[in-house]
Amino acid sequence: MKKLFGIILCLCAFASASMIGMDALGEEQVLGGMAGAAGRGYAGSAKTGEAEGFSLMNPARIAFDTKVVFNVNFEMEWFTAEKSDEYFTTNKIAVPSFNLTFPMGNFGALGVSLWQRYTSTLRESVKDSVTKTTTDIEYQGSVYEIVPTYAVRVPYLRNFSLGASAHLVMGNISRSLTMGPDNSAVSKEDSWATNNLELTDYVEGTWEVNHHPAYYSFAMQYRGKQVSYFFSYTMAHTLLNELEYNFRFSQLDTLAPTEYSREIEVPAMLATGINYRLFKRHNIMMDLSWRAWDENVENIGRSYDMRAVTKTQNDFMASLGYQWDGTGLFYDPYWKRITYRAGGWYKNWYIEDVYEFGGSVGVGLPLGRKGTTIDLAFQGGKRMSESKGNWEESFVGIRLGLMGVSSWGQTRR
Amino acid sequence: MSKKSIAVLFVLSMLLASCIFDSDESTLGSWLGDQGLPNSYKVQTLTVGDLTPVSAEVFQDSTPRDANSRAVLGAVSGLSHDLVFDFIVTDTVLNTYLQTADSAKTSIILNLLTPFYTSKSFPQDSFPFEEDLSIKASWKITKGAKKSKVEDMLDQEDSVWYSQIASWKSQNEADTTYSLKITKKDTVLEIPLPSALTADMKNSGKYFRIQLRLSAPEASRIYRFYGTASYYPPALYVRNIGEKAKQTMMIWVQRMAGVFSNQESCSDCLVLHGGVFDSLVVEYPSKPIMNALSEFYGDDFPYTGGDGGDVRQAVILAELTFSRDDSQGSQELGHPIQVVVGSYIDSAKTQDMREMETYKLNKNLIASKGHPNMVFYDGDSLTLQVTFGMRDFINRASDGRTFKAMMRLGYPVLQDKDSTYANYVTAKGDSSYTFFGHFDYARYDFSTIKSSPSTLKLWLATKRGDE
């Protein structure tokens, strides 16, 4: 397992996230990129069970869990960015979230998640056939959130639960563009000055919530015999990105940076979802989330002919999913113990005129008797873009989730 | 479905995805363009003429310096070079000898720096050197009551001794004249010292220390010798020419230092001397450079946004060109002399940090006209690269700083039109040296910097867009 982690983390360093909106916030990892949720099209935050685990959209859900769940997720995605007859292909490897939930019976449940919410990652080189110079472009950016959560079932109204979570934001971002010279504007006898001289345009900074340690989500969940649903509200907040921007001739030979901050007004999010259970193991689910962006997002390290801002739009996601729950009985045939999932989603990105639709199928493969599961999801889709500078992207991906289940703190019956 | 089948399916799906998504990296440049990012930095040049310094000042450090490897005695180019020796006597043999001898004489042995005088780069037609050298010898003798007290003097740090001799006060002194004649074949000088020194040594007890200073301010030139740490260090010879004691006593030098004094008559002149680390600091005002940048880019300079760090552009290279007049200087060896330059920077937020500039080679120019950073050479201008300094100055100009550069005379240049700018072995197997490894104790008057305007040429990379 340690080797697997090592390989994945190494590969992360060479992979790229979506190339849309990298100068804004980057690509959002919906629901922590959990493989279980991804397999059913990111629907199912209303689905309850004894070991459903963390839901970043619905902090109230874990109140109904009875088992401790640890969950870590990996993602591999291949995508092609294209515009007219030009296309560029790269891949992405990410570890979008770690999650732990700890039910405490009548005292409610605690949970914590480490969520790589937004990523902008790219490392590529391009050689100019005319000038023979090589350009290296590298984005390394992540907005991480640590999300401690508490949820409790309401006394007397035991089918209802309330939950709240705090989102502590951290992370950093950098963009490095290393270029060779363009001497077209200088006389030939002056071009010697740039011999063997590469120049790096460099910007780096850190993320936090402005004037506050965190922002917060609140949720209410109802669990019925057949129908469960939730409603959640996440507060609006301002992300603060403190940046240093300079030119570098080498690691040590740099200009004193100019320091500036960008503030990104993230609107409140409303989310709801429903899960309908029929014939015991069949589940049909639908989730909706919505954020009304008022402000555009200032771009990182604006220079050259870059646009000053990334224009925003109402950020909306609708997802529909199906899940057949495995039996959970060890003596059943293995195929019956597997959980099967399928789903699809439509998403308006926070970036103006960027839309995404996709579909997925997934399985939850039980390992051993204790409920430990490997979740696999295969997904594909398209990110449509009509905005300037953002190319359309087609993607396929594999998500892998490892879920450990235990009964810590529970008395044996 | 078995676990094994699932693993195989997983791997196959990854391979399939790899095949479906073929890559075409050449379009990344197009994508960069769509983001408004360039794939090369645009270079522009800007020339700022008529720059006159707000200040120009020569700094001279006359602190005594070690003469470990080489030593200089005499006078040249407005400087007089003295030598100070430290001899420590820790045994009784010399005292016994002096008490016995009836007519002892003392002299000092100085070995000529033969690698310098026999070098092809030294003008051999300078030989022979011949003059009646007036030497002033001054000394002070410290008597040691005990041997251990004198032995403690051996352990004194050299740096402490250098600082002590900076304020030299002799106990005794005497003038002497030495008929100097040096031909190509000579390797050593034995200079007789005044008899008063011998007398003082005789009266100094068993253990003592002699600090001896030799000055020859009226010498027609300088003479170079091996120093303390060489194979041929100086020594004091004591010989008896009477009847009683015939052998020669020899005392090796413990340490020695070179001290120079300035004999220039013009206090306002900007004279740099070679070999002694004189430095000329020139300070240019901010305004003409800022105005030129404003006119060039159409933006306000200095940049005052945020914390005032201007990263809208960067200096790729900067050259400062002065007029020069070699006729006001003098030199010893006849080779062009490199002018080295440093700039005062503080991007690292330290105070007045001086960084020596690198020298980027303009190979075409060097091949046709020679290195532009030399004096005592063809032409009437001197071009120095001040890239680090100018880069820092424009970057931080909002704090009101001026541009300050320092220059000094470097080594004589042997390959004036060779752009390799490093020692190398030729195809014939010969060594080719860029510099002569010995300083020319030259003088160069840079006073024209104050009266003749300089020109600054900048190569700039900008972050401004085309739109």
Overview in brief:
The complex is a heterodimer of chains A (413) and B (467). In chain A, the strands form two sheets. Chain A has a 14-stranded antiparallel β-barrel.
Fold and architecture overview:
- The complex is a heterodimer of chains A (413) and B (467).
- Chain A contains 3 helices and 20 strands.
- Chain A is mainly beta and 413 residues long.
- Chain A has a single domain (2-184, 191-406), classed as Porin, CATH 2.40.160.60.
- Chain A is elongated.
- Residues 1-15 of chain A have low confidence and may be disordered.
- Chain B has 467 residues and is an alpha+beta fold.
- Helices cover 20% and strands 37% of the residues of chain B.
- Chain B starts with a helix and ends in a 5-residue tail after the last strand.
- Mean pLDDT of chain B is 90; it is low at 17-22.
- The chains are: A mainly beta (413), B alpha+beta (467).
Which features would summarize this protein structure in a list?
heterodimer, A: 413 residues, mainly beta, Porin, 14-stranded antiparallel β-barrel, 5% helix, B: 467 residues, 2 domains, six-stranded antiparallel β-sheet, 37% strand, elongated
Sheet with most strands of chain A: 14 strands, antiparallel, barrel
Uncertain runs of chain B: 17-22
Query: How many helices of chain A does DSSP assign?
Result: 3
Q: Overall 3D geometry of chain B?
A: elongated
- Along the chain, the helix and strand elements of chain A come as HEHEEEEEEEEEEEEEEEHEEEE
Element layout with pairings:
The complex is a heterodimer of chains A (413) and B (467).
Chain A lengths: L1 H11 L14 E2 L6 H5 L28 E16 L2 E18 L5 E19 L6 E20 L6 E23 L16 E11 L5 E9 L3 E8 L2 E12 L9 E9 L2 E10 L3 E10 L5 E2 L10 E2 L4 E10 L9 H4 L1 E10 L5 E14 L4 E14 L6 E15 L7
Antiparallel strand pairs in A: 1-4, 2-3, 2-20, 3-4, 4-5, 5-6, 6-7, 6-8, 7-10, 8-9, 9-12, 10-11, 12-13, 13-16, 14-15, 16-17, 17-18, 18-19, 19-20
Chain B lengths: L2 H18 L7 H8 L4 E12 L3 E5 L5 E2 L3 E7 L2 E11 L3 H8 L3 E8 L2 H4 L11 E16 L2 H8 L3 H9 L5 E11 L5 E5 L2 H8 L4 E9 L6 E5 L8 E6 L8 E4 L2 E8 L8 E3 L5 E6 L2 H11 L15 E11 L13 E9 L7 E4 L6 H7 L4 E2 L5 E5 L1 H9 L7 E10 L11 E2 L5 E2 L10 E3 L2 H4 L2 E9 L5
Antiparallel strand pairs in B: 1-26, 2-16, 3-14, 4-5, 4-11, 5-10, 5-14, 6-9, 6-12, 7-8, 7-10, 12-13, 15-25, 16-22, 17-21, 17-26, 18-19, 18-20, 18-22, 23-24
